[in-house]
Write a structure and sequence with these properties.
This protein has about 70 residues and is of the alpha+beta class. It has one domain. The chain has 3 helices and 2 strands. A two-stranded antiparallel sheet has the order 1-2. A hairpin with a 7-residue loop joins strand 1 and strand 2. The longest helix is centred in the middle third of the chain and has 13 residues. The radius of gyration is 13 Å and the shape is globular. The two termini are about 20 Å apart.
Length: about 70
């Protein structure tokens, strides 16, 4: 999305410090489920789609635009 930490914090309601801490962690961030949910909803609302583990690995892609 090319958002800065400040832009993502503003859009999601998650603090910049929390986002930075998440970025610095290795693997799944140790954060409150509420914060992870806010970030996921923000990314989904902006057009990203989270892909579940299906044998090829979990991932994220840009959702196809309809018509």
């Amino acid at each position: 999305m090319r958002w800065s930490v400040a832009e993502l914090a503003m859009a999601s309601g998650v603090s910049s410090a929390t986002i930075r801490r998440m970025e610095e962690s290795d693997g799944v961030p140790n954060s409150l489920a509420d914060n992870l949910g806010k970030l996921r909803r923000t990314f989904e609302a902006s057009g990203l789609e989270f892909i579940p583990e299906n044998g090829g690995g979990a991932g994220v892609r840009v959702r196809e635009r309809k018509g």
